[in-house]
Amino acid sequence: MVRIYLSEENAHLQSLLKQLRDEEQLRGVTVFRGISGFGAGGEVHTGGLIDLSLNLPLVVEFFDTPEKVERVLEDLVKTVDPAHIVSWPAEQTIDNI
Questions:
Q1: CA 81, CA 58: separation in Å to the nearest integer?
Q2: Which of 45, 80, 82, 87 is the one with CA 20 to 30 A from 73?
Q3: How many CB atoms are closer than 10 A to CB 50?
Q4: 65 or 34, greater pLDDT
Q5: pTM for the model
Q6: Tell me, what DSSP letter sits at residue 50?
Q7: Partners of residue 44 on adjacent β-strands
Q8: Domain residues for 16?
Q9: What is d(CA 38, CA 92) in angstroms, rounded to the nearest whole number?
Q10: CA 5 to CA 92: how far, in whole Å?
């Protein structure tokens, strides 16, 4: 499982999604848009009606086989700050109901 923390302003989201879909051929990717957050600089970005920000936090999340994730991470660190990427082992469960 991989999670990438970005902001709308610096995400280059369309090119990242294109890379993950077309070049890396991942099974799937989900992008979450945060309603509020802050990064290393400490500036709070929020999506409130009064202070509508166009620089909200984004989280890009995906999983695949361990081998594929390892290979994708090697490529990702060339375009995304490695400090913004976290990963952990995950198991896919299948219900036979």
A1: 14
A2: 45
A3: 5
A4: 65
A5: 0.81
A6: T
A7: 38
A8: 2-87
A9: 32
A10: 23
